[in-house]
Design brief:
The complex is a heterodimer of chains A (about 300) and B (about 425). Chain A contains ten helices and ten strands. By secondary structure, chain A is α+β, with helices and mostly antiparallel strands. Chain A has a single domain, classed as Alpha-Beta Plaits. A four-stranded mixed sheet of chain A has the order 8-1-10-9. In chain A, strands 2-3 form a two-stranded antiparallel ribbon. The N terminus of chain A is likely disordered. Chain B has a single domain, classed as Formate dehydrogenase/DMSO reductase domain (Formate dehydrogenase/DMSO reductase fold, Up-down Bundle), CATH 1.20.1630. The longest helix of chain B is centred in the middle third of the chain and has 34 residues. The two termini of chain B are about 35 Å apart. Classes of the chains: A alpha+beta (about 300), B mainly alpha (about 425). Chains A and B meet through helix 1, helix 2, strand 2, helix 6 and strand 6 of A and helix 4, helix 5 and helix 7 of B.
Chain lengths: ~300, ~425
Amino acid sequence: MNPDTTSTPQEAPAETGFTRRDATKLAVVAGGLGLVALAGKTLSKLKTTAASQQPRGPQTVREVAPLGTVPVDGQEDVLVRMQDELRRAMAKPIEQRRWKMVIDQRKCVGCHACTVACIAENKLPSGVVYRPVMTETTGTFPNLATRFTPRPCMQCENPPCVPVCPVEATYRRPDGITAIDYDHCIGCGYCITACPYNARTRDLGENYTAGTPMAGRAPYEKLSSNEYGKCWDRQNHDSPVGNARKCQFCVHRLEEGLLPQCVTTCIGRANFFGDANDPDSLVAEMAAKASAHVLLPEMGTKPSVVYLS
Amino acid sequence: MNPAIAPYRFLLWAGWLGLAVLGGWGVFERLFHGHGQANYGSYVVWGLWVSGYIYYIGLSAGAFLLSSLIYVFGVHKLERIGRLALLVAVITLAMALVAIFFDLGREWRFTHVFLSPNFSSMMAWMVWLYTAYFLVLLLELWFALRPSLAQWAGEEGLRGRLGRMLSGSRAPLTEAQCREGAGWLRALATVGVPLAVTFHGGVGALFGTLSAHPSWHTPLMPVLFLTGALVSGGGLMAFTAAAFWPQQDRVWRESLTLIGKAVLGLLLFDLMLEWAEFSIPMWYGVGGEYDHLMNVLFGEYWYVFWVCHILLGTLVPLALLAFRGREPWAIGTAGLLIAFTFVAVRLNIVIPALTDPNLVGLESSFTDARLRFSYLPSFFEWQVIAGIVALGCALFYLGLRLLPVTTPEPQPKAP
């Protein structure tokens, strides 16, 4: 057959124009896709993710024992006061708490103890860090100044990382903490790119001992992480390997009436933590200082981490 | 196969074998040892594979939109490459999905996007839209091939078995059946056009909606993605039609010339958009975007833009299409250059934005190979890409050999 002279069956409808029969077919195809979309919408309503099943109300109240051996009288270490305020906050339902962190940059000496304590607390592997301390030097010699900026997750009121998650594995808890459901996260990294603070990191399944005879078998690498009050075992490549990971204000410690690890470890008492909904709390008092500011305010994320400088 | 490339058959096979072995090794490493050998990390979280994904998906959308010129808009001059364009669109989409599958941290949980989607996320929209697009594409390909497959149904051997199995008919289609099929094809292609535009615009919006990266956060992003898809997909079709079409006749030359003209126009339009993309933020030499774009143009990887994209991907094809626009070899070479080097554009979208921290001092706050604001794909990442290319080539070859993609369509038999 000479291909030059071949007339094709597709030509006929094009020549005769758009018929009623064509319109019916078009409607069937479009309708089919519409049905698929409807199924998706129904599925999204039926889903039972951690984000859609967050506990609220009286069941979230925690009774934390008061400090028995240390006097709380206004002259105490700020940690003792914040510990007492934490007890007060945990006695309220979760939706009435609003966790806030204030970091006094004038007190921070850049020792990185908080970074290391966080790694130890959350059993962070290589490639994952929740609270690095940024060092910025300004001026020229001999007029120099150095500023240290610890950068935990900002636990934004308007978190850009939450709406981008395609499976709702990341969500904002009623107490303002942005959490990740490690059992649900697909590890696409979209939330990591959405965070303007680079506060999210990717667990690629590596260990600090990689390339050594102890690779992955050092005792501390066998310990489970207790993030979100659960037991996460990275061995055998289980979650959170492959997931996005981030600071969550040590919620597993808060549930037990303990301050976040970075706060208790700070040697200069530069960290303040507590319930911003409690007007008598130290953190509410510090956050109201004239020198208080947030990182990248132009992003409109409304961070819950405030800096004093 | 086109007689012009037949003498290079051995070289092509050797090249494919090399890609397949390298790629197979890389894919094995990825499946059994994870991401360990990749160079992306926690800050540059997306690398070569995500760039490859948006590159392939652009090729697919471009090839598909070219096929819609025939099935929706009735451009009969291109009719003969319609089925080839659909085959290329299906294969490049499959390649894109494989690339993004390997990039996922928990790849086997991809079903979560279907079972518990979050429709506020552009990514969820993109996945749902390209799933719908994939279904439409497969059905369209089937309707386009069915008359020829049914023609084979009466034959003995593999062709006959394939014809019967795939066409669902034991005899050549009647004229009424052909018309019926053509109607469905037209309906599918009509729905497919907005779907392809939406889903590929959606890939652009996936980046464009992120305010964290000013270079992505521009309303131009979905438009750039669409034009890029048309240019790169058109280029790939120009090359495919030039290199793999068996009959080098007058119609083939006319079709190729038309594709060449379309690609030339699209390339110029894309160049204009790119000029806007670079010149507007850079004009007064001040602002955050200026530094970012200076890094793209004159940073460490300047050659990705100037050599791969501008010289090989734009200027040489422009010259070939403008001055040798009637010669098949020139159209094919221009198409190959455009399609192949377009990956440089995709890399320049994904990588530089991620190597640019918003916070001063973060890059030196913690020493770890995964916590760096620099990135160069590792050998392992290239290996996986080689594997995906080998897979695509194999699927294309099988499609070309086993399916009636380049054979003339049969005359319908009267009932």
